[in-house]
Design a protein that fits this description.
The chain is α/β, with parallel strands linked by helices. Helix content is about 35%, strand content about 15%. Strands 3-4-7-8-9-10-12-13 form an eight-stranded parallel β-barrel, surrounded by five helices. Helix 6 packs parallel to helix 7. The radius of gyration is 19 Å and the shape is globular.
């Protein structure tokens, strides 16, 4: 029995109609507290209920060991305040941030909305975070006190006050502070909520950022770029070329979408406006098919030589399997986890094990790109 789906979610979403951002803040506070008491009874109960360990789900990628392929996407733990808890909730890795060099409040509220009819969320948070200096201090303390059992990635964004022409230096300043504290790094140039940010996906702009970061990256930390689902195939192909040129660890596909196609939600209760009239990116189920298309395209264009982290609309083992067999070595969840609750990760992992058995495969690694591999005769 899943208490979250039967009682807690209906209460929060429908009866109390809790503000999405307030609820998120209370949740992250609780997780932050739990992360500071790793040996507690509560954490042991979480591990027993939510974790599933099986060697068939393990992978070693870009020098890191992932106990399973399901990760927490960036945006949930923006300041890295709960980095120590995510392994107890069943995740195989977690990504903190997006962090910017300068602390910033983000966009005016309200800025986060649930769209239950679409199993989606609309957000225009605007990279609200405490800044790279604060995150560095926090993660240094956490690293000193705890032994990490899963990889922790750090998602880097551009500060709103930094002009686009100075973006590369802004990313570099954050990376310098954090480079010894993250297991991998993500260059986020695809959020729709910072003015002009998506223009940094242009090959010449992105090249300047990656060039500076890799010059600084003497420890050879894995660096990813996170792209938008709204790019055309030519633009994605350009980014693939850059990923090869700058020896990136891989590509994260994809961020939220600015498309409003096919949404069932007519009016957002908090604002009285339609989603079409509200700024921000859509995540969740409406993003699922497009993100899978992008994953498949990258896999085909690279013959599976560039690792892909797939994110967008994952709610079930079937969704996860679709992303993995399209070419994603790892996947990330966020909106699906909000809707499905904390048992979701374990359900997905159990479902993936069943899929492996049905397909006669011995490891999750063998399933990567299975849809797009050419059969040998």
């Amino acid at each position: 029995m899943d208490i979250y789906q039967l009682a807690i979610r209906p209460l929060l979403f429908n009866v109390v109609k809790t503000d999405s951002e307030w609820l998120h803040q209370q949740t992250i506070r609780s997780f932050s507290w739990l992360s500071k008491t790793p040996a507690s009874w509560a954490n042991q109960r979480l591990q027993k209920s939510l974790c599933l360990y099986d060697s068939r789900l393990e992978q070693n990628l870009f020098g890191l060991n992932f106990p399973n392929p399901v990760g927490l996407a960036a945006g949930f733990d923006k300041d890295g305040v709960a980095a120590g808890i995510w392994s107890n909730l069943g995740f195989g890795f977690a990504e903190v941030g997006t962090v910017t060099f300068h602390a910033q409040p983000g966009n005016p509220r309200p800025r986060l909305f649930r769209l239950p009819l679409d199993k989606a969320a609309l957000n225009r948070m605007g990279f609200n975070n405490s800044g790279a200096v604060a995150m560095a201090a926090r993660l240094a303390q956490e690293k000193h006190e705890l032994t990490r059992s899963i990889p922790i990635g750090i998602n880097l964004g551009k500060s709103k006050i930094t002009p686009l022409e100075a973006a590369a230096q802004d990313y570099l300043d954050s990376f310098r502070l954090l480079k010894n504290l993250g297991d991998y790094f993500v260059v986020n140039v695809s959020s729709p909520n910072t003015p002009g940010l998506r223009s940094l996906q242009d090959a010449s702009m992105l090249s300047a950022i990656l060039d500076l970061l890799q010059q600084e990256n003497t420890a050879h930390k894995p660096i990813f770029v996170k792209i938008a689902p709204d790019l055309d195939w030519v633009a994605i192909a350009d980014i693939i070329t850059l990923a090869k040129t700058y020896q990136l660890a891989g590509i994260i596909a994809t961020n939220t979408t600015i498309s409003r196609d096919g949404l069932k939600t007519q009016v957002i209760d908090q604002t009285g406006k339609s989603p079409q009239d509200e700024a921000g990116g859509i995540s969740g189920e409406p993003l699922r098919d497009r993100s899978t298309e992008v994953i498949r395209f990258i896999w085909q264009q690279t013959q599976g030589q560039i690792p892909i982290i797939g994110v967008g609309g994952i709610f079930s083992a079937e969704d996860a399997w679709e992303k993995i067999t399209a070419g994603a070595s790892l996947i990330q969840v966020y909106t699906g986890w909000i809707y499905e609750g904390p048992m979701m990760v374990r359900r997905i992992l159990a479902g993936l094990l069943s899929k492996l058995e049905q397909s006669g495969l011995n490891s999750i690694n063998e399933a990567v790109g299975l849809q797009t591999k050419i059969p040998k005769f």
